[in-house]
Amino acid sequence: MADGEMISIDGKNYALDELTDEAKTQLGNIRAVEVELQRLEHQKAFAKTARNAYARALQEELAKVEPQQ
To answer: pLDDT at position 3, please?
Structure first.
């Protein structure tokens, strides 16, 4: 962390170099979770795109079959 680097939490500014080791650890944990949440959001978008493609392919195949009444 750079000297004099600041972070804003709940509308309050803190100097990173003045945080306790435990606060720095928890901040690192939060940052790691944010990265993981972003990765999961991308994975979710990928899965939704795949689902839509499968649904379109199914519709194309169902068009070849006469529905039963």
So the answer is: 67
